[in-house]
Amino acid sequence: MxxxxxxxxxxxxxxxxxxxxxxFRGWPDQFARMEWRxxxxxxxWRSVYGHRVPVLVQRGEVLCEFHxxxxxxxxxxxxxxxxx
Length: 84
Hints:
By secondary structure, the chain is of the alpha+beta class. The chain has helices spanning 14-26, 28-33, 43-49, 70-77, and strands spanning 5-9, 35-38, 55-58, 61-65.
């Protein structure tokens, strides 16, 4: 079973929407298994990630923040299904 990926976001954040759309296009299977975490629903998440959203985390390691970096994801998720 693949390690869980956490996507920290904020409602209404255009960067969050852009990263989510790119993840959906590039890695739809991974996208479907992500744990979605709205930073405004938890004080701890807001404290750690509130000024950095969107943030993609796996095993406590930040994979991307603010913008998707395909080169950082390919070693973990494989090549994107659709070129980004």
